[in-house]
C-alpha cells in the first residue's frame, strides 16, 4: 500500500549586518609658552672693619714714655710733692708755734727731716696685665636684593576634532525558503 508522505524543508531567512565604526580623531596642539626671567639685582655695601691696638700703657710700664707724657707726669708729681711739702711745713710750723705743749717738737722734726724714707720692695709684671688695649669694630655688610618677577606669555591652541560617522548596513543575506515535497511510501500490510 502506498501512503503519501509530505516533506517540508524550510530555510530560515538570515540577516546580514555590516558595521563601519565611527572614527573620532582629536589633536591638541601644544600651547605656545614663553617664559622670560629677568635677573635679580643685588647691591652690596660694606663698611671696613677697624682694629685699634693701644700699647701706650705697656710701653709706659717699660719706661718707654713719650715726652708729652713724661712732662705731664713730672708736672703732676711736682705739684703733689709741693703740696705734701707745704702741708708738712705748715704742720711743723704749727707745732713749733705751740712749743709750750708737751713733747719735744724740735727733736722730732729734726729726726723726721734727716731720715730718708724706707725703700719698698715689690714684684711687678712688666708690662702689667691688661695694659695693651685692643678694640675691634667688625665690618658691616648690607645686602639689598631686588627680585624681578618672571614674564610668562601663554598662547592656548584649541583642539582639532575630526569625526567621521559610523554606519550600520542591514541586509538580507539569505531569503527564507519553504520546499514542499510529496513522496509516496510503500507500507506492507
UniProtKB/TrEMBL annotation:
Alphabetical list of Pfam families matching this protein: DUF6470 (PF20074)
InterPro entries: DUF6470
Source domain of life: Bacteria
Protein name: YviE
Native source species: Metabacillus bambusae
Lineage, top ranks: Bacteria, Bacillati, Bacillota, Bacilli, Bacillales
